Predict the 3D structure of the following.
Amino acid sequence: MSTQSDNQPVPAENRASGWVIFVFFLIGLIASLISGWIAFPNLLYSTKQQPIDFNHKVHVEQMGGQCNSCHFFRDDGSFSGQPTLDECKSCHMYPMSNDPDEKKFIEEYVKKDKEVPWLIYAEQPPCVFFSHAAHVNGAEMECGTCHGDIGQSTSLREYQENRITGYSRDIWGYGMLRIGEARHGRRHKMNDCAECHLKETGSKGDCFQCHK
Amino acid sequence: MTTPAIPEGVKRCSTRKFAIWLAVVGAVLLWGVYAMFLVWYKGLNQTGMNDAYGFALWIWADLAVIALGGGAFFSGFLTYIIGKKELKNVINYAVIIGFICYSSALLILALDIGQPLRGWFIFWHANVHSMLTEVAFCLSCYFGVLTIEFIPVVLENPKLDRIPFLHHLSHNLHEVMAVFAATGVFLSFFHQGSLGGVAGVLYGRPFAFREGLLIWPWTFFLFTWSAAAVGPCFTVMVTWLTEKVTRKKLVKQEIFQLLGKISGWMLLTYMIAKIADTLYWAVVTAPSKGFALMDFYSNNPVYGIWILIAELVVCGLVPAFILISRKGRENNTMLITAMILAVIGVCINRWVMVLQVMAAPLLPFQEWYMYMPTWQEVATTILPVAYGIILISLAHRYLPVFPQEKELNPGN
Amino acid sequence: MKIDRRCFLSLVIGGAVGTTLTPVPWKLTDDIAIWTQNWPWTPTPEKGPSVYKKSVCTLCNGGCGINVRTVKGQAKTIAGQADYPVNRGSLCPMGISATQHLYGPSRIQSPMKRTGDRGQGKWEKISWAEAISTVSEKLAELRSRKKPHTVACIAESDRGTVPYLLQRFLTAYGSPNFIRTPSSFDAQEQALYLTQGKHGTIGYDLANAEFILSFGCALMDGWGTPGQMLSASADFKQKNKLVQVEPRLSDTAALASQWVAAKPGTEAALALGLAHVIVRDNLYNKDFVDNYAFGFEAWEDENGTVHQGYKSLLKQYPPKKVAGITGIDKGTIESLARKFSRAKHSVAICGRGSGMVPGGMDEALAVFALNALVGNINQPGGVTAIPEPDYWPEMQRDKTASNGMQQPRVDGAESDRFPNTRYLLNRVPEAINSAKDESPIQALLVAGGNPLYTMADTETAKKAFDKIPFIASFSTYMDETAQYADILLPNHHFLERYEDVPTPAGTPTRVIGLTRPVVETRHDTRHIGDTLINIAGSLGGFIENAFPWGNYEEFLKQTLAGQWDSLEKQGYWVDPEFMPPAWEEAFQTPSGKYEFYPSQRSNPSGKDADALPGFRQVELPGVQEKMPLTLMPYASARIAGGAVANPPFMTKTVDADVIRDGDVFVEINPKTAKEHDFSEGDAAVLKTPAGKARVRIHLFEGLMPGLVAMPVGLGHAAFSDYIAGKGANVNALLTDVTDPGSGLNAGWGSRASLVKA
Amino acid sequence: MTKQARHTKTKRYGMVIDLDRCTGCGACMVACYAENNVPFRKDESDKMLSLNWLRVFKVDNGKPFPDTEICYIPKPCMQCDGRHMEGHSPCVSVCPAVATDYDEPTGVVSQIYTRCFGCRYCMAACPYHARKFNWWDPVWPADMEKYLNPDVSARMRGVVEKCSFCYHRYQKARDSAYVEGRDEIAENEYQPACAEACPTRAITFGDLLNPEHEVYELSRSKKAFRLLEKLKTNPKVYYLTAKNWVRRKADNYLEGESPADRKPAHKAETASH
């Protein structure tokens, strides 16, 4: 309950002046803007390194310039995604170069018969059915349209993972609130799919087209 | 004992007595809050709902409190738009009751979804065809309006009123209150209606389904009409209860009678429409879907024809006739009884439009589905009642809710 | 410069305004919602290429071909193998949900030994070496005491290489006590032997039959090979060729073109009544009966004694009398007999329920005689004997073993009393419980089946098992019997192992299917064949020599060398040379003919009436006054009634008027309910002479008044929480009723009472 | 840059269930649960708390012994075309967050578990109780997670799920067609798990608009009817029976009405766009 002193008006000379109050407002405003726009994104994502480095460029050159030499369609129309150890082993049973990462690959994975736990930049959540066949064969799209120039890269970039959702940052894109450029090819959020579908096919598509 | 936090010239109970009162009600509130967190943490398996009862006690409570909270918009409509200035004497209380009802409804809605953290999808990914979307938007907006309407009442607390900024804010808000009242009426028309639409559009549920006008089933209009009719009854009923608890007269009897008269005519016209709707449904709609009227009122332990009679006659026509007759209104017991009956009637209506819809079997080889709420559901449904009592207690104690109180209780 | 609380308020407001202008609230709201879409405790199945693998399901003796979809070495879904000659792509719910058993909680994950009391469920993990040596030491000890014949082995089948290895092991070791778990095929196979002189599996060519008269066979609920029967059902239905004799409107009766609700236990009388009409009206196949059958007319033996023939026996079964016994009206009997004899290929089949419900010899012989009367033996759409597989290498054995093999069998099978019966597990409990000193079984190897669940009067069986000092189980699952064992040597799950599956009962062709590993072994289990080879190796001597193979797989490939290519490629092998022999060569009975008068039948009284298949009402135990109702078990395709219990998916499909809140519902006719003052859903206690159980009442018009029908397959106490503790085990309420000449259990039901709980 | 996506003909996938063939064995249910990662609980006896996309009901004609007859009625999601055949199925129109949608190319009513926030309005709207709510977190004991089908996502607590006509099989069949350069998929390429598993071949599945598909004729047969036809939900699941009493179990008839007087089932072709 209230006390007697509360009921007395505070003398004016004991009160902070208007501009001091405004400065405090500004301090609050600027501090929150800085932490929200700069600190928060850094806190939200953890950075992970790929288990071994991989030179796409060299592989593309060696394998005849085609992505589908390693990322191919299976007979049933499903997309193979990352090559399995067996597929890698067909060339890399023994070192083909002096590359330290190749050595590491052979020592730690080939010899131990262990799959490489690649971190997949464009990995979609389990509720998504993404048909590579529809895009690559049906719409005759290039891999790079969505995946950027990863085929020309000589080294794997770091992988950023959203600490809350567990998804790759490539899905949301690198800008916060979808502001700014999408790095590394296109963003892969539903809106991005819908946007392109609307443009190319005249419809965002039905839910089941891409969900399972 | 008067402290400056309490409005001038009115008598309030001792702080100690008030604290004990709050503690008792607070205990009930805490019980509800515990159940609420249990539901949020463990999920809806804490309820007695099942796949036959996707909607149950909570949705009923939602529909009921929103109907009863209709007093706020309808009193506002009468006061600010029709110009029944004498109703200014209850409008504060009507707003507070409305605020309690609507905040409770929102709370229950937040409980009643399987994925509360995705609750905002209803706004962000809204399906404009869904009555529930309409409900969510109108309900939230109207709750905003109610909050704005509530603020000046709060600011009239003597202590707050001393702060010049707040004093001026309060004054200016009062000036534009008619605008908000009008907005509130508009929004209320739609959300009360869309709540009616929630059941009425279910064309796969012959018990609920009603033909309608354009995209709105008749229940859309019936719900709005009944909320307008019964909302003021609930306001009077709560005021009357407050008077009983505080043991003093807070609002003049003429006001009660005026509201009773308006409610009575509203109720009567509503009942005429409701009976016409029921007849059309029983004679045309239900048979077209293969059901005779009695299919919905037999072969089960609860839902007999009594419920229809209770809703339409005992809690519908009877209170309507009492309220439209001068004699009925002038007898306080009759007046209050009629209002309580009307309140029960609208609660029954909301109950059958939710629960009986779920209970009635559709395929001939299925039986009636029965449902028993768990204590968690009951506790969370009582939670708003406790919360309402606390808010009303605080409001009554610290805010000048009833302008006529000083006049009616001289010598304090 | 003064700083007061308004400054802080201002700071907070500034912060709040700023925060709304940052991504924080919006991104967090969205990410938290995405988090709910990706809760780490909701599993994400691993993606990968689908690989389909063919195998054969061994969850029951049906042996259906299956096609398993695997992804990254994990079994995902199971469907019927479209070209498999038995089930032709159809599969029962049990087979479809086998992955649940593979990965489920009822698996025994390693060898274990008991640490608590029997059945208490306290186990200690042990190594395979310890498990093998424990069993071998026990067996060696019994041999050293010259008691190898006190070892018994229980298996679910006596065909195929695994049962063969078990038999071979016992033979080398010195015990005659290989015991197959009981089923209605015991009586049918014996009837086959008595009438045709052949040991083998019975094949019914239902696909080519024009008229099928089923004496209570739950064709749609597990009889024979479930996949095969379900697959044929459309044909039964379309061609209106099925008549079902049964007191309950079962799924099979519902499918039939005619449901003949005979009183339970009177099937033999009905068969005889039909035969009466057929013979009386000269509707039988004269060629077959005159030239290839024996004992139809009266006959004279070598001593000059004249014996009554089948024809004159039938005189005692005129339709009027049969109508009285069976409760079926005379006209129906007459018309049924005519339909049966006039259809081009008629076949009568027997074996109540899914084949798990017992039945006596008279019934089997009476039904067989119907097929003989219309000459439908080794004909399209008829009955054929499928010879037992015979591809086993020779072996030598030592003296202890030879002596052991001379000893009588514990169960009394093949004794003077029951000379034609091969296995009598139902008589084992009595043999043990009535033994004066120590149990005649000192060590029991449970290598299949789940006797402590499936045997009638399970309590008595349990008491007998208590007296067996050593019980080893090879079960894949923690079933009721494994739970009661002393040591567990778990076999691989069938999706992890090789095994051959010979012609299942009922199938009219000679076929071998190959069960093979579709996933890698998940637990520290071992193929039962390998375990046996290990035990033999550790016993040494002639026993070791009898098992010269490195492992089971090697043995299997060697044994089935001729069929292996086909097995590997197609998953099955069909004998291209198998043709049912012509009547001239078909019968190996003493008369060389089909014997209507089974001259080999054990007949202590010497009376012709006891040798011929007459109708003798089985005296069910209990006093009629105290127990006025009759309990009959019924099979349901949604409840596995055999050794292996339901996986959770199947239990999920069971209706709420069969199981609810852990209680089983028994069906009674509303009339019976009225008499006993029951209404739907009432709780009751069902009492029989063997025991009692808490049940609830379900009213069903499709059940004959006076009966209580209870589903088989509930009331498990073992496996996992997903099946244990649901309802009651009907087997525990039944009693063994010894069939006089065969020793088989003829107790198809029990007297019972229902009292309100 | 990119070519227009290939356009295939509009389909209206539907199912015809021959009730005279169904023996109630339950294989369809089990196959459905295995295919669609439907979880299970220790006690499933309360069928209104039991997640099942397909349930087989046993009904009888109510006549006394021995004139009793029984029939099994399998009930998946009816994939309603809606009141005016335009896809406003009872459930689709009420979902406040577009978590359930009418798939235009196929006519399948979709359910997106990650969009659903669990208001259960669709369940209230569905007259067939085809929609099931995840009251609990799904749990697969022991190693049972290993059998989960990667083509179907596991559902989390608090969302509604239902039969999808195994839409993921359609997606896979389309993938296969894309890779082989085909625009259309064959009838047998897309069959839901229940139809494939039905050992008595009582379930037929295909495009109701395609005269070459078996369902086309079957759904137009005199024996064909649909559940609760009078509600005008326009299901795409048809049933066949020759028995009048079974038809009476499948819809509500007023006194004096008989199934025989009924107009034939709505024809799916009116739905073609």
User: Anything to note?
Assistant: The first strand of chain A starts at residue 45 and ends at 48. Chain A touches chain C at residues 14-17, 20-22, 24-33, 35-37, 40-41, 44, 74, 76, 78, 80-81, 125-127, 162, 164-167, 176-177 (CB under 8 Å). The beta strands of chain A are 45-48, 159-162.
